[in-house]
Design goal:
Radius of gyration: 23 Å
Helix content: 10-25%
Order of helices and strands: HHEEEEEEEEEEE
Number of domains: 1
Shape: globular
Length: 205
């Protein structure tokens, strides 16, 4: 065997240095994304409309809840203070979401409903930025006044160090009514979805 043949790399061997150079940017991006989620940045990463909307359900249950004070920003730069609620895998008996929108022809109500007789609504990794929340609640293993940067019940839902926070391992709320600035969720399953847009129609409550 010649010297050239002995130095030739055997077929099937991976060029690890080249592979590492290609993979490193992807690994770095994944690490940055994990850090961003841990900081809670993704929960409010878009400009809100500047108009609160209604959210209601007969009953909501979840295996995890995390909440802290947060400020949402609309496209004009105005701040909208509220509480950011992070909910793990949640089940809702029904869901109603409605917004009143002023238009040149009058006030239009954008209304979305789901659940009820069609079956329960399920959602994972729900993050709701609301200005109020009304209902009859029951919490399990609750922690009130915990530093928002240390919340760990809902992955990715954390606030800034020193900010007030609360969390619970379990939560059940009936008669839920809320005015919210934004809502995001990893996965929604809306049985019996209905969307209606009309002039001066009824909202959720």
């Amino acid at each position: 065997m010649s010297g050239t043949e002995r130095k030739r790399r055997p077929e099937g061997r991976t060029a690890w240095k080249k592979a590492a150079a290609v993979a490193l940017p992807a690994v770095t991006a994944a690490a940055v994304m994990a850090v961003v989620m841990a900081e809670g940045v993704l929960a409010s990463s878009f400009a809100v409309s500047g108009q609160a909307f209604q959210v209601s359900t007969g009953r909501l249950t979840s295996k995890g809840l995390a909440s802290f004070v947060d400020v949402g920003r609309s496209a004009d730069g105005r701040g909208h203070p509220g509480a950011l609620f992070g909910i793990n895998d949640a089940t809702l008996t029904d869901l109603c979401q409605a917004a009143r929108v002023d238009t040149p022809i009058g006030t239009v109500v954008f209304k979305l409903t789901a659940g009820g007789d069609a079956g329960e609504v399920t959602v994972s990794d729900l993050v709701l930025h609301g200005e109020d929340l009304v209902g009859d609640a029951q919490f399990g293993q609750v922690q009130i006044g915990r530093d928002a940067s240390t919340l760990d019940q809902v992955p990715g839902v954390r606030g800034e160090p020193g900010r007030f926070g609360l969390q619970a391992e379990e939560v059940s709320v009936s008669g839920v009514r809320s005015h919210a600035w934004s809502a995001t969720g990893g996965n929604f399953r809306l049985k019996g979805l209905r969307l209606k847009v009309g002039l001066d129609g009824p909202a959720c409550f």
